[in-house]
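Sequence only, no structure available. Ideas?
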Amino acid sequence: MDTQSSQISSSQGFADGQNSAAKESKLSVHDLIHWRDPKKSGVVFGLSLLLLLSLAAFSVISVVSYLLLALLCVTITFRIYKSVIQAVQKSTEGHPFKALIEKDVSIPPETFRKHVDTSLTHINRALKQMSRLFLVEDLVDSLKLAVVMWLLTYVGAVFNGITILILADILLFAVPPVYEKNKTQIDQYIDLVRTQVNNTIAKLQEKLPGAMKRSKTE
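Reply:
I predicted one. Tokens follow.
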């Protein structure tokens, strides 16, 4: 019994640690896009935008190769510099990256399985939703998808994938602070738009055959 209770407590402690880590990661992303720390947000925004612009100008292989080459140049130069300093000063500090080399960078099986299970849950949910939409379980929802796909054909004719990612990156770091400063006014306009959309959908559901609400069919 003591062994089982200790195993249960250790597993609960591990789960709590993972949950706290997940919450901290979510909070850190939230803080980044809301510019809680302007220096960190600026660095992340600048690097992500630079990476996307590089991908727009060069191939993925070239960008990855240049990044790894730059990293190797920095580490090799630092390694040679520290070796020269140690030889001149006759010190015995050892390898400058010893602490990083000895650090365990392997992925724990529990963490890997947890992410696989989470990904599988999202995949199954997406497959179920796609089946529902393409097999026209609800006519209005399928028509919504058709309209969105039709609009995306025009978006794809104007922008390529990298351009859309660049715009999404800019909006990700620009919209949250603007919304936070003008939350009241923006919420009012959003409520008006949502009301108009809901009224239009309700009228369509009344007129289109087979477009009954799920509450009636259930």
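Residues 2-33 form the longest helix (32 residues).
Hope that gets you unstuck.
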